[in-house]
Amino acid sequence: MRDSSKGVEQRRNRRKFIKGVGAVGVLGLAGCSGNGGGDGGGGGGGGGGGGGAGTQTATGTPSATPPDAETVLTYWTLFGGGDGVVMKSIIDKFNKEQPLGESVGIRRQRVPWDQYYDKLYTSMTGGAAPDMAIMHGSYLRRYGDVLTNYKPLIDFKLEDEYLSTYVDFVTIDGNINALPLDFHPAGIYYNKDIFEEAGLDPESPPKNWDEFKSAGDTIASKTDNDVYAPTPYMDGVGAYRAWSSWVKQAGGQIFNEQHEPVFNNEAGRKMTKLYWRMTGEMNWTQQSSSENWANQRFQNGNLAMVSNGTWYVNVMRELEDFNWGFFKPFVAPNRTQKKAWADGHTIVLPRNPDRSDKKTQLAAEAAHWITTQNPEWGSEAGHLPAARQIHESGALESSPIYDKTLSKFLEMAKNDAYFFHPQVPSGNPNNANWWNWLIDVWAHNTEPEPAIESGMKTIKNAIK
Question: Which of 193, 211, 349, 440 is the most exposed place for a label (fewest CB within 10 A)?
Fold first, then answer.
């Protein structure tokens, strides 16, 4: 196997950097990922950062001093890392500019992702809910009974303020369960130096299965690096993002219109077997299910490609001398359509019997301001904002990450490429138990056929 001096030096730099900041420091750079990241990109949430000290309590981790205002709106988030910093700056701006008047301020609290929804649900059912809260779109149906309908609180049409796809995303059974903040889809990040080391053009990443397979085989044969991982964190939900994208690209269904799992179809079985083959006969990647294994390998310069969401861009930007790129995930074998997984952040108004109508109205207006007046949520945090005026402002095109990631995510949005994390009426679509069977297949702990049937059974039981 060939190992260029540049590739050796690159990996040496990666190891030096990671040793210097420590494993916790590197993982803490993540923003919206979960299992070592920050928020919940369609799942994630929990990593470091997010600004501000504070002792964790049952009602969140205070990370912003309550402003000197007559009405203080409490606002729960789960953002850490890069997007946590951006959200903190947005709320600081609100409290400085006072768009709803001098008497209204926001107190932001961050709760780690792995505790967030349990604590939020407890607060809502216990009569101690925050005035506003971040909620993934995948939970809007499940929590619908404890959310305030925005419809009587807003004096605008959703489609006038937000792109049409986002309108459908937050409208559940005729109710406006949330105001949309963003989409956070997933794609494939890659190490350009490994591509160059293998003799590949680092500026021409794969666009289809044949190119993806050829590049992977070349990297496997000409370097000592692992080729690909479906998630940095070796978590089930992360593995689902890549797998479901490929299933959809091959024409398969994941859930039917009744929200029942139907992925034990031809495409679902084929992509499950592909996971097995990648760490087996294809000899692309090690058979590991260790938490954060691929995250460490990728950041250390020993993994060529990894699937992840919008939030990962700020992890990449923080790494010194890391020569990375990004490409659309349309690389499934037997592709019949271009589809990519996505979820989205929204702002909900949890029901609280002790909150006045006036305060509920102010919370709705504050949520509208947060979701429409802050282009930095796209240009800096890396997500796809929902607001029309942000897309029309030119702010995204002037972002330093536009060419790297945003332009590609936007192109997929314009071409209607996204399908969404399931909005099931019960059960938790981000529960590790729903999707860990994919990691078991990847690590050769369970063969594909029994694994997929086990996954079907688990999810059917969860949503009964």
Answer: 211
